[in-house]
Amino acid sequence: MNGNPVTWSSANEIPLVVFAPRHLRRTVSIALVVGTAFFAMNQLGVILSGHAGGVVWLKGALTYLTPLLVSNYGVLSATRRRETLSIHPSDNP
Which of 22, 39, 67, 76 is the most buried (most CB within 10 A)? Predict the structure, then answer.
């Protein structure tokens, strides 16, 4: 990975991390692979049989959205900047 790592410590920095090209490529790839596998297992039969209604298509969309959100949660968990307090005996009065 090149460049400085993209990190966040406040909510307004989250979009910068989520939409960083290297994170976006990874999370979308995960969503496509996992979503396609789950879609094939859960919805493909209904769609191919011609019984797909609006609810089935909604479930199909959620099938891709769920791994996207989960992978973004992982990225955000890994990139969070935490302010640490230095606790030394000399700091105590």
Answer: 67
Q: Which range marks the domain in which residue 28 is found?
A: 14-79
* Angle of helix 21-42 versus helix 54-79 axis, rounded to 10: 140
pLDDT tens string 32-41 = 999 999 999 9
- Tell me if 3 is assigned to some domain: no
Q: How far apart are CA 23 and CA 18, in angstroms?
A: 6
Beta carbons of 71 and 27 less than 8 angstroms apart: yes
CB 32 within 8 A of CB 26: no
In a domain, 37, yes or no: yes
